[in-house]
């Protein structure tokens, strides 16, 4: 299963930019022993990259009881991050320093959803 965005998805993400901040929803499923690697990724993201790019974690936590959902729709964790805009997010994930750390995320996960959100007006 995919854990990193593909080039076509990133192009669509940039093309569909409504302007303004973007809040990214992360639904995460960890592989065996993956939680520790993700924690290290998260620490480096929080301490280095989010401040560098003016982003902020709005929520991070373990997923709990599923009230509505089909089999296979359960997740281990949810992370919600706000970025100043889509261009900033795109710049961060292309940063060579970030790419060196992003391998921890890829190693930690067996599956993920990374979805941009647009606020209701």
Highlighted features:
Alpha-Beta Plaits, globular, 121 residues, 4 helices, alpha+beta, 4 strands
Provide a concise account of the structure shown.
The chain has 121 residues and is an alpha+beta fold.
Residue fraction in strands:
25-35%
What pattern of helices and strands is seen along the backbone?
HEHEEHHE
What would you call the quaternary organization? Answer: single chain
User: In CATH's first tier, which class applies?
Assistant: Alpha Beta
> What is the straight-line distance between the termini?
34 Å
The number of helical elements comes to 4
Structural domain tally: 1
Q: Roughly what percent helix?
A: 40-55%
Structural class: alpha+beta
Mean pLDDT: 94
Q: Which fold name is given in CATH as the topology?
A: Alpha-Beta Plaits
Low-confidence stretches: none
> What characterizes the major β-sheet?
4 strands, antiparallel
Number of beta strands: 4
Provide the gyration radius in Å: 14 Å
| Physical arrangement of strands within the biggest beta sheet | 2-3-1-4
CATH architecture: 2-Layer Sandwich
- Overall shape: it is globular
InterPro entries: Dimeric_a/b-barrel, DUF1330
Domain DUF1330: 37-111
Pfam family, one: DUF1330
Protein name: DUF1330 domain-containing protein
